[in-house]
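Sanity check record (used in CI):
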Amino acid sequence: MRTCTISSCPSVMARSSAVSPYYICLHIVEHGADIKLKIQSGETLLHFAAQKGVEEICRLIIERGADVDAKDERGYTALHVAAESGQVRIMEILLNWDVDINTINKDGDTALHLASIACYDKAVRTLIENDCDVNIVNDDHKTALRLYCSKYGSMDRLSMIQELLLKMEKKCIEEIRRMKSTKIKNTVITFHDILTKRIDQIALYARNEDVVQVMEASDYQTMFPTYEDIIKRRFNRGKVRKELLDESVTFFRWYFNRDYDLICIQGILKYLSNLDLTNLRNACKKTLTATSPLFELQQSLMSK
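Expected output for Ankyrin repeat domain-containing protein 6-like:
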């Protein structure tokens, strides 16, 4: 008879993530569960948590080193699962941790294909706002749009959709023109910069108090209604990146070299993904003690 232990049976954790509170899963993880293990179908705990929409557990296991790009036997990542299930908040969590947004399953489908065929509008919009490739074709040579229309509409409806898209394009062009010329308060930064720059650059913008004040006021939402969601989400991703970088600078100086200047350290850390930075933070924290002066200082800075 096969003995099933916590560390050898991921289905134990899968069930806890689906039907039990967060602290139960945390307790199992703290007692040595291997969160990267797969069941026979190739699914990981992250796949189960993504399908059920359990946000806290998704964050927990990603921070503990779960592979966000792990695939099951169908070629599904957790992002595929979340998109197919319409779990938008889970998708946002995965995207914040640099999941491959354009990866395909064994049928050649991206997360956008699955969200489209399942008719989840918010999931489709989330993927597009995060720069997914809308022109990828699957094994049937269909884009996500063509796949949607083949299931839900006729060619006449496709023509209508294309006409609406042309009108939307004109509206987008006009908003982009205004974004390029609209400075954020007393800075040289424009809203177009928030829309288009790399997240690392937006993390730098998040250090400017004027920028933060304007973004939190949300007046831009009426100025740029088509892009306001994208601008908001990109700035929030920049803030997350900034916080991770700030923590990592502290740990870098403690463990590697205190004499490096800030620009040098930031130049090194920019090559790390959010998941890499989290793993660095967790590894460093394991060797810190609550009595360490640096630990207390770091905790104090984080609480401000």
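The first helix runs from residue 10 to 19. If this sentence no longer matches the regenerated tokens, the check is flagged for review.
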